[in-house]
């Protein structure tokens, strides 16, 4: 369990599932905006025998992604991979979307 993976969007859906899968073989730095849900995923990884560190952050705020990477490196001594799963989407009627 030497590889360190930074995983964004880790509090639900594909991100949470990826964390639980990778937690068996990698040290994880999990990033999400929702503190309570992120804590649940970190707990699940740790209870399954993995190592996970959670960072609550909004990656849409300028400068925050760099701070997250710096914290991950400081906490784990480096990074081997990044899984950028964070994202948002907007919904609208097709006629309301401009080209």
Strand content: 15-25%
Domain module count: 1
Mean pLDDT: 93
Stretches with pLDDT under 50, minimum 5 residues:
none
Q: Could you give the order of strands across the largest sheet?
A: 3-2-1-4
**Largest sheet: number of strands, sense, barrel closure:** 4 strands, parallel
Principal-axis shape equals globular
User: CATH superfamily assignment?
Assistant: NAD(P)-binding Rossmann-like Domain
Fold and architecture overview:
This protein is α/β, with parallel strands linked by helices and 99 residues long. The chain has a single domain, classed as NAD(P)-binding Rossmann-like Domain (Rossmann fold, 3-Layer(aba) Sandwich), CATH 3.40.50.720. The protein has three helices and four strands; from the N terminus they run βαβαβαβ. Strands 3-2-1-4 form a four-stranded parallel sheet, sandwiched between helices. The longest helix has 13 residues. It is globular. The model has no long low-confidence stretch (mean pLDDT 93).
């Amino acid at each position: 369990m030497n590889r360190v993976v930074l995983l964004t969007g880790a509090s639900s859906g594909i991100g949470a599932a990826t964390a639980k899968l990778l937690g068996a073989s990698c040290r994880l730095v999990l990033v999400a905006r929702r503190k309570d849900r992120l804590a649940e995923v970190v707990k699940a990884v740790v209870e399954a025998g993995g190592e996970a560190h959670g960072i609550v952050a909004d990656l849409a705020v300028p400068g925050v992604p760099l701070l997250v990477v710096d914290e991950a490196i400081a906490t784990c001594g480096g990074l081997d991979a990044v899984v950028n799963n964070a994202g948002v989407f907007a919904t609208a009627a097709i006629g309301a979307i401009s080209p």
